[in-house]
């Protein structure tokens, strides 16, 4: 879900309520991060609103600390322990993630569990049109993104030690049931006819294909670090929603960038792809399928509809928090207002042909 790039780029002084005891953290870093040497200066990244993220600056190196937020949280939410586990396993398998140094579950150090990883230098693009890249190079950046997601989906969870990272099979059914139940029980957020029809349609058309892979859950251009000068993905960030799930649903959620405007996510809707020299959705899908070693994604339109439902359900939850006065984000109202548009778009997509 998108905000303005300026709202997420760079660091600020540590915000009130998110302070860290630098002396206590320094002791832990000396004991757990090989080669660590202070003195330590701490800044907070503007992004990382879900799990507060900090830049740890020393004379010889910079690191990233990602922690659970302070205060009461829902069971299972903000699971930095899972983030650390998946990044460690993927790094050992050769997938591009920041090198993880250590996980700390001792809440006496910074107040909540956290982990420390390398700071990866490179480029993050907050605009899906990649305006900073030349027209000639733009297709290569898209190919790199598509191939990286396919590379993730090609990994065997058992071989990388993640076979118990989620449930095998039934991902779409579980997500549909859980999100539908949350939608129907949030009376303050209200019901929507298009959302109701979309839920019914999704339940009636679940594809027979039930493969399982490691899924990122929120793969977007702004969760990817590219090499400073080349169209090469050097690190994938933000593994909070990762699990075992259906790879085609994961790809379709990523491909929503072709269907939504920038105000919803980092989107390409209404962009002139030809003028920008950005691959079409069909060509982008072909790159993914070829890297995965398949001819095409069967039932691709279903997974697009499912992804629109999933995003609409997330926005509906924000709508409920706005109604209850518990929404913390300054952008919560605009996301709540976008819920009916997403529900309508999801229902309309059910009658359209797949580009795959």
From TrEMBL:
Gene3D superfamilies in the record: 3.90.1200.10, Phosphorylase Kinase, domain 1
InterPro entries: ACAD10-like, ACAD10_11_N, Aminoglycoside_PTrfase, Kinase-like_dom_sf
Molecular function GO labels: transferase activity
Domain of life from the UniProt record: Bacteria
Aminoglycoside phosphotransferase domain residues: 41-272
Entry-linked SUPFAM superfamilies: Protein kinase-like (PK-like)
Keywords assigned by UniProt, alphabetized: Transferase
Stretches assigned to coiled coil: none
The protein, known as: Aminoglycoside phosphotransferase
Organism annotation: Steroidobacter agaridevorans
């Amino acid at each position: 879900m998108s905000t303005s790039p300026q709202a997420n780029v760079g660091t600020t002084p540590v915000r009130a309520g998110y302070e860290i005891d630098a002396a206590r953290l320094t002791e832990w870093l000396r004991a757990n991060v090989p080669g660590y040497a202070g003195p330590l200066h701490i800044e907070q990244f503007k992004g990382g609103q879900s799990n507060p993220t900090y830049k740890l600056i020393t004379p010889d190196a910079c690191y990233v600390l990602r922690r659970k937020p302070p205060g009461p949280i829902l069971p299972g939410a903000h699971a930095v322990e899972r983030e650390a586990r998946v990044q460690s396993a993927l790094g050992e398998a050769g997938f591009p993630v920041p090198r993880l140094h250590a996980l700390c579950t001792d809440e006496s150090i910074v107040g909540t569990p956290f982990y420390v990883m390398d700071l990866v230098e490179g480029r993050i693009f907050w605009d899906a049109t990649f305006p900073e890249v030349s027209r000639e190079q733009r297709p290569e950046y898209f190919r790199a993104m598509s191939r990286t997601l396919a590379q993730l989906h090609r990994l065997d969870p058992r071989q990388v030690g993640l076979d118990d990272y989620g449930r095998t099979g039934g991902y779409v059914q579980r997500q549909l049931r859980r999100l539908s139940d949350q939608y129907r029980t949030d009376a303050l957020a209200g019901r929507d006819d298009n959302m109701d029809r979309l839920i019914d349609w999704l339940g009636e058309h679940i594809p027979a294909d039930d493969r399982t892979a490691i899924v990122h859950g929120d793969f977007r251009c702004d969760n990817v670090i590219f090499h400073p000068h080349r169209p090469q993905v050097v690190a994938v960030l933000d593994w909070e929603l990762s699990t075992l799930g259906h790879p085609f649903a994961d790809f379709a959620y990523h491909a929503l960038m072709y269907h939504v405007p920038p105000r919803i996510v980092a989107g390409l809707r209404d962009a002139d792809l030809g003028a920008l020299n950005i691959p079409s959705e069909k060509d982008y899908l072909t790159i993914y399928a070829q890297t995965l070693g398949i001819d095409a994604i069967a039932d691709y339109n279903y997974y697009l509809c499912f992804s629109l439902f999933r995003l609409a359900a997330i926005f509906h939850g924000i709508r409920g928090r706005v109604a209850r006065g518990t929404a913390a984000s300054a952008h919560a109202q605009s996301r709540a207002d976008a819920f009916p548009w997403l529900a309508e778009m999801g229902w309309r997509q059910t009658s359209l042909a797949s580009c795959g």
